[in-house]
Amino acid sequence: MSRAARRLGPGHQGGPAVDEFARRFSEFPCGAAVKTGDQLQAALEGRPGVIFILRGNGLELASTLRRIHAAGKLAAIHVDLVDGVTSDISGVRWLVRSGADAIISSHGQAVRAIRAEGLVAIQRLLCVNRESIDLGLGAVQRAQPDIVELLPGAILPSVAHLVLPYLTVPLLAGGFIRDRESAQRALAAGALAVTTSEETLWTASW
How far apart are alpha carbons 112 and 60 in whole angstroms? Predict the structure, then answer.
């Protein structure tokens, strides 16, 4: 069974497949990374087809997710960062019930739980040095996410040769993407899309 076909698991019947995320990013290669209510409103009014929720009360996300879906956008929730939710199967199941389309985590155990619940799993790959890249790639290989997000994304042009040959899934670049030029460099280096909290990029012409 393909990754895309597997998305329609029992925990999220009818949920979007990886292919749908790829389609949204092909239309506008920038995801909105949201930490505040004001940012959420700007993201809802902006061009990104995918909104990444990085802060908030995980126990009260259902209304936020309904707003995102009403705007015709997809929602990815960072289970490690939102309050009140644990990075384990119980936390993942809560976010599934709340209406998440994808869940982000740096932890392989959480990524495996996300996959088991039928949602798109996004695993963060933190690049501090060569050792962290190697360890992160090993964790990705074990967890088998649907998408990888490299942080900080601004360094992708310098480390692409260390990362891309070892990935079989799409790569996002997030962190320190502060202007159109840094975003375009990351895209040219091989990222499917960038994720950023820089609101000017949510309305930029690409």
Answer: 24
